[in-house]
Structure formats: C-alpha cells, structure tokens
Amino acid sequence: MIGNQLQSIPQNTISNMVKTALCEDVGAGDITAQIVPINQINKAQIITREEACICGISWVNEVFEQLICDINKNNSQANANIADIQIEWKVKDGDKVKANTVLCTMAGNSRALLTGERTALNFLQTLSAAATSAWQAVQHITNDKTRLLDTRKTLPNLRLAQKYAIACGGGYNHRLGLYDAFLIKENHITAAGSIENAIKIARKIDNNAPVEIEVENLEELKQALNAQADIIMLDNFSFEEIQKAVEYNELQNKSAKLEVSGNITMEHLNKLSELGVDFISSGALTKHVQAIDLSMRIMRE
Known about the structure:
Blueprint (H helix, E strand, L loop, with lengths): L10 H16 L14 E8 L3 E2 L3 H18 L10 E5 L6 E2 L3 E9 H29 L8 E3 L9 H10 L13 E3 L1 H7 L2 H11 L5 E5 L2 H9 L4 E5 L3 H13 L5 E5 L4 H9 L4 E3 L2 H4 L6 E6 L2
Parallel strand pairs: 6-11, 7-8, 8-9, 9-10, 10-11
Antiparallel strand pairs: 1-5, 1-12, 2-4, 3-5
C-alpha cells in the first residue's frame, strides 16, 4: 500500500542479491586472497568516515556467511577454525552515527574477510546512502500529516533493498513495482481516452488496488476527484497551484489524498508540507545519492 514503510526483506531475497553480487565480483575465485594461508585468522572492523543513517547489516552478514559456506564446501582441509567469522555489530539498521564510528568488529578466516570486503561495503554504503538521504529530508518536513515517499527510480535488482533503506531513514514507500498499485500517467490517460475512463477501467481490473492518477493542472484535478481517484499526483504544480488544489479538495470534502512530485528539493520540503499535502515523492532519495564513505580495516594481532 502506498504510504507504508517496508519493515523487513525476506532472507531468501537478501541471499539472492548477495549471491549475484558475489558471482559478479569473485567469479571463479579470489586469486589475490590466496596470498594468505587458508587457515589464517584475523580481526577486522568497519568504520564510517562520515555522519550517516546505517542500513544494510543483513546484507553484510549474508556476504560472509556465503563465503564461509563456500570455503567449507571447496576445501577438504577446512575445519571450524577456518570456516568461521564472528561479527559483532555496534549499531542496528536505522541508527544515526557520527563520523569515525566503528560499526562492527569481525573475527575469523582471513581469506573470507578479504574476499568479502568490497561486496559487503558496496551493500552497506549504498543502502546507508539511501537511508541517510531520507533521514536528512524528513528533518525538513514539519507537518506531521505529510509523508515523504520514494519512487521506482532505484538500482536494478536492489528495489526492495533501497525501499527498505528509505524506511530505515524515516521515509515511506510508494508502490513497490508495477503490480501493487495503479499509477495512471499522461500516456495512460491519452490511450484510455479520458481521466474518467482510465479510472473506471482500473477499478474493473482490480477494485482493491489503490488507484493514483497524475494531473497537470487544476481542471484535471477536478476530473480526477469526480472520478474518485484514491490518490492524485500534482505533477510540477507551483506552490500557488498546490495551495488551490488543497483548498479545492477540502471544499469538495473529497477523500482523495494529494501527492506532489517533480523538482523536489530540500529547500522546498518544509513549504510543501506546510501546504497540507499528504505525500511528497522524490526520486532523488534513491537516484541522486552518494555512497557513504566506509572502510574496512584488517587489524594487526
């Protein structure tokens, strides 16, 4: 449902994401890690070099679990000392931390630590970036009624992970994909013939799925309200037009929720929320993020 928060990701989904990522990075094997003995043990820690909202712990854990499993399977000399990594997390998903915070300490097989470093950090830095962007954005929203939404502008194969990260940062999720809600846009309206007809057809297809429609002016807003859309997206409306839309919706005593989208900036979030809209959606939350600066360091004994 649009406007909810994704609380967790199925473990098999995380496992598949990690399996694909390790296959991409490790391929037939990490030749560099072979410079250390297969039974060598080391400790390591992951540190953030900047302030962040953390997300991605389960993905990091899964990276090393899969690598340890591979060592057990591929090396007849493996034993409990070789095929083991213990991770002690100092934080949990959703925690806000300052620069130079130690996120976790690890102890175990050196080859696994070395091989898994980049894949583990890639997940952690990318998901923490999305969580941090949401955390920073929601601090600009002062109206408790207004929820900040993500979009489908996510990295391929990381849709659920990035949406979970947005929720960890305090944001909310728009539809997960093309399958769980209608979002009728300009081209759909043109193909269907009218706003009213597009909404009517959608109700016949699935009367239980939310029906959202994008409008580009106040006249289309009125048509969408009359057709009883569940959510109306005000696409690239000016502040003045948004105010009029909110006032008209209240005057007509309609139940439709209003969402604003297009050119959303940090500076605009407070003013938009004060106008009384229900949702503000921004693709930048996942599309324009910069990975959090993390590092993993093997510790000398």
